[in-house]
Amino acid sequence: MAVVTDRTTEFIMLFSRHSQRIYRFIRSLVDNRTDAEEVYQNTCTVLWSKFELFETGSNFWAWSCQIVRYEVLNYRRRQNLERNIFSNEFFNRVAERAMVTVDELDRQQAALSVCYELLSARQKEVLEKIYEPEASTKSVARSLNRSPNAIYKTLRRAHDLLFSCIQKQLQSGDFF
């Protein structure tokens, strides 16, 4: 039976906190989903194998991003794409921007989670139904026994509240 060390626990905690961000970062750099999943698996393996080099207390996200960049470059070399489409300099610029974009999306998602809780039960119900596959304003109105106009008004109020709340949250940073 394997012994779980403090470093193993540290890795599991850090990786579980950042795994979705890492995957989204890879997905922003690799357009094919299957290839992105392969790069993600390779990245996970490298993160674990090199974790002994990670300095406790430093930025795991930034460290992971550097490994992702190398893994994506390796993928590009294996696919022989770098000579045919983009230079490594271009790729590095895209990767830098993608890191910022992933951070922005994480902040927006966190703000949305906070703001969603401020909606009334009725607003939440309408939002959840309107975003179901094949849903329309008319079908939601029918299912809730309300007029389409009432559904439009509820959606408008909910979207306005979410928009203003998210903007305030992003400006203040209070959602973390």
UniProtKB/TrEMBL annotation:
InterPro entries: RNA_pol_sigma-70-like, RNA_pol_sigma-70_dom, RNA_pol_sigma70_ECF_RHOBA, RNA_pol_sigma70_r2, RNA_pol_sigma_r2, RNA_pol_sigma_r3/r4-like, WH-like_DNA-bd_sf
Annotated RNA polymerase sigma-70 region domain residues: 14-80
Pfam families for this protein: Sigma70_r2
MF terms (GO), sorted A to Z: sigma factor activity
A Gene Ontology BP annotation from the UniProt entry: DNA-templated transcription initiation
Record bears the keyword Phosphoprotein: no
Source species taxonomy: Bacteria, Pseudomonadati, Planctomycetota, Planctomycetia, Planctomycetales
Protein name in UniProt: RNA polymerase sigma factor
PANTHER family listed in its UniProt record: RNA POLYMERASE ECF-TYPE SIGMA FACTO (PTHR43133), RNA POLYMERASE SIGMA FACTOR (PTHR43133:SF51)
